Amino acid sequence: MPHRRIGAAAVAAGHQRLSIVIGVGTAASLLLLGIVAIFINHKHKKWRAKKQREKYLKKNRGQLLEQLVTQRADIAE
């Protein structure tokens, strides 16, 4: 009987280590997933803004850009 108790304690310790490893791995994975989601969201917003600018540029045939350039030239003088 004493061997079973020692064995059971060893198995319990093994399960505890496994639980800790699974918990740490899950936490690290969730943290990484959150960071990647923030990065992708940031890139998507920049991409969407760029596409919106291109759309306005095509729609106005560059008139808006010309106005902005002349305004900046006035500011620079």
TrEMBL record:
It comes from the Eukaryota. The chain crosses the membrane at residues 20-40. Keywords: Membrane, Transmembrane, Transmembrane helix. This is Uncharacterized protein. It comes from Leersia perrieri.
